[in-house]
Design brief:
With 173 residues, the protein is an alpha/beta fold. The protein has a single domain, classed as Glutaredoxin (3-Layer(aba) Sandwich), CATH 3.40.30.10. Strands 1-6-5-2-3-4 form a six-stranded mixed β-sheet. Strand 5 and strand 6 form a beta hairpin. The protein is elongated.
Length: 173
């Protein structure tokens, strides 16, 4: 016969483990629910937090990128264009770098160089990965003063993360 205190302790431990499993399962469900089809299929590749050695940046326009200036290129879909344009309306990022928006369909971003790229050729030429659900990439690339791509990532919530973009721009030579 098992003493009452041992049985009680065992039941308490089992209850604690079951509760922990339920909480962790719920957290995993929340994390899965927050994933988007626009995210990278490999989460380790999305916003990894390191600078690339650099590959030459393809031309966006005849004037961009400009030698001697940093450039940030945002890749968006028409549905997210207004949100990105509103976020870019402030001067903070434009003070540190030239800014361009590549939209994979029709649309313009007032006050910002906008390039329409319905075939998503620029996203591929900048080396952005394909989103989990396919289609054109959504995210950004940072180009250094020598014209090299130093950071690129998928980021479907880039309009909410301009502080992060600014930090990366400051880190790029």
């Amino acid at each position: 016969m098992i003493p009452e205190t041992t049985a009680t302790t065992r039941r308490s431990l089992i209850a604690a483990w079951v509760a922990a499993a339920i909480v962790l399962g719920a957290l995993m469900a929340v994390a899965r629910a927050s994933e988007s089809g626009l995210d990278d299929a490999d989460p380790a590749q999305q916003r990894p937090g390191f600078l690339h050695a650099g590959a030459p940046a393809p031309r966006l326009t005849a004037a961009l990128p400009v030698a001697g200036r940093r450039t940030v290129v945002f890749f968006v879909r028409p549905k997210g264009l207004d949100e990105v344009c509103r976020a870019l309306s402030g001067p903070q990022l434009a003070e540190r770098a030239d800014v361009a928006v590549v939209v994979s369909g029709p649309g313009r971003c007032d006050g910002v160089t906008t390039v329409n790229d319905p075939a998503a050729r620029l996203g591929r030429s900048y080396g952005l990965r394909r989103p989990r659900a396919g289609g054109p990439p959504v995210g950004y690339a940072v180009i250094d003063r020598r014209g090299l791509i130093r950071y690129r990532t998928l980021d479907p919530t880039v309009a909410d993360n301009l502080g992060e973009v600014d930090t990366i721009v400051r880190a790029v030579p």
